[in-house]
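Re: [help] complex structure
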Amino acid sequence: GESVGLHLPTLSVQEGDNSIINCAYSNSASDYFIWYKQESGKGPQFIIDIRSNMDKRQGQRVTVLLNKTVKHLSLQIAATQPGDSAVYFCAEKRSGGSYIPTFGRGTSLIVHP
Amino acid sequence: GAGVSQTPSNKVTEKGKYVELRCDPISGHTALYWYRQSLGQGPEFLIYFQGTGAADDSGLPNDRFFAVRPEGSVSTLKIQRTERGDSAVYLCASSFKGGGLFFGEGSRLTVL
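Output below.
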């Protein structure tokens, strides 16, 4: 079936290091992907998105890479800060026309000072 | 307002009671979504509105759940005969023309 999943449930890094959070998807018809950050007790916060006609997109300290060949998505955070500690979700656009993001379980990023 | 607003932020009710959760989306956003999130899980899709109509309600778990958006802006999620398994954070999000979703802080529902 179609699914969105994450390789690692928890990622621990030192402050200042770069972080890479990975995500696999199985729906080859997905054409839009989004990364969200969710802090404890808050709603998910939009970070960055990418369409399937792109391989890479950069934002402020974040880069999303899309590898359609192996159906893999990654979020890279440069110079990780304690404020980056949160759960990160990738979401894909479901096939069928309606834009309804489907979320995986998430990866918990823990940044140690 | 500047962001998606959800009320109440917390709701405690007894099993069998009726509950309404309200969502006020970002002004001008035509699409509105309801998701449900249990502890340690990602958001689970419930229903999606485009304007006033429910474009996709395939995520509603059963007929005890219903949502409306009568004027294409504010939406209300209604849960009848609540059960303990309905306890979760109910998230609302809005978007403009298929772009990224912007979420509210959620309404935490606890059914005793």
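Chain B is about 0% helix and 50% strand.
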